[in-house]
Specification:
Layout: H1 2-29, H2 36-55, H3 65-90, H4 95-102, H5 105-116, H6 123-142, H7 152-177, H8 182-204, H9 209-215, H10 221-248, H11 251-256, H12 258-272, H13 279-300
């Protein structure tokens, strides 16, 4: 079990580093080379095809019709809903701000635990949650729109919603993972997300200037290289590794790894000029970090061994 936990932790480190770089890659592509909704559809369709091909080489236990439907719906609404809000959000705000809201996932997990899974709301948890939301509101209300963030308020709000949706996704997918294999789960989840993406993009319209330029014979290789990186690493490999972490770690621990996204995104964003240093951002990051520490201390003092998931989601 110790080896499995080490493997799970290493999987989450690799996954979250790729997810951090994903934010910088998406900021480069959106909306100049790729529309947000079209980007979601491309990612979901690519991952669905990749996981179904992977399933041809990996044998896992058969799943029931009910399980397939549940996984498909989780992808169609949960995973697609997360990506929908996330890509729309990051196209309007900066990578660091989007990462700040991504780091709120542990707070959402605890809130869901309190309201839906009958977790006890201690004073320390309430203080932690209040600090976290204070940091989020500080970022939303003080960041102005500029050349790096064309609609910061809307973008930050969408990124906060996306972090909540992903927290729900983590909890539900962990519960389903008890009964199905990793590849099987991702096949049906991304299958559902791909169907949602194709439907939404068909109605809203396709927006992919880089594809239109390529059709005319003008290949912008940097944009294509960034897209290839996003599809292979943050989309396929990163999502492949998350269930490995969920299988052997608490959902709260998996959620806390979102802080690694914040670190990677901040360093790369400032290095590439995709963001500017802001004292309000720094204070917001500090408040959210302290808030999760408070909640984790309270969790450690709790009699329950795995907050969000009775008997294990």
């Amino acid at each position: 079990m110790k080896d499995k936990k080490l493997e799970a932790n290493l999987s989450m480190v690799a996954s979250r580093v790729m997810a951090g770089l994903n934010m910088n890659g998406l900021k480069y592509l959106l909306p100049l080379w790729l529309g947000a909704l079209t980007g979601v559809t491309i990612r979901c369709v690519f991952a669905a095809v990749a996981f179904w091909l992977t399933g041809c080489f990996i044998k896992e236990a058969a799943v029931t019709r009910k399980q397939r439907i549940m996984l498909f719906c989780l992808g169609a609404f949960g995973l697609y809903g997360f990506m929908f809000c996330y890509l729309l959000g990051i196209s309007k705000t900066t990578p660091v701000s989007s990462a700040i809201f991504n780091s709120m996932q542990p707070i959402w997990v605890f809130l869901i635990s309190v309201f839906f899974l009958h977790e006890k709301a201690t004073v320390m948890k309430i203080i932690g949650i209040a600090l976290g939301f204070g940091g989020a509101m500080l970022c939303i209300l003080t960041q102005g729109s500029d050349d790096l963030a064309r609609d910061a308020f809307t973008g930050n709000l969408l990124c906060m919603i996306s972090s909540f949706v992903f927290a729900v996704y983590l909890i539900v997918s962990k519960k389903l993972l008890e009964k199905v294999g990793v590849v099987t789960m991702m096949k049906y989840i991304f299958g559902g997300a791909a169907v949602s993406g194709i439907i939404v993009s068909s109605v809203a319209g396709w927006d992919a200037p880089m594809f239109a330029e390529a059709w005319k014979g003008e290949w912008h290789w940097t944009a294509w290289a960034v897209l290839a990186f996003i599809l292979i690493f943050p989309t396929y490999l990163s999502y492949f590794l998350v269930p490995v972490g969920l299988k052997y770690l608490k959902t709260t621990v998996v959620a806390i790894y979102s802080y690694l996204i914040l670190v990677v995104t901040t360093v790369v964003s400032l290095s590439l000029g995709q963001d500017r240093f802001s004292w309000t951002q720094a204070v917001a990051i500090a408040m959210i970090c302290i808030s999760v520490y408070f909640v984790e201390v309270a969790e450690g003092n709790s009699k329950k061994t795995d907050t969000p998931l009775p008997p294990q989601s």
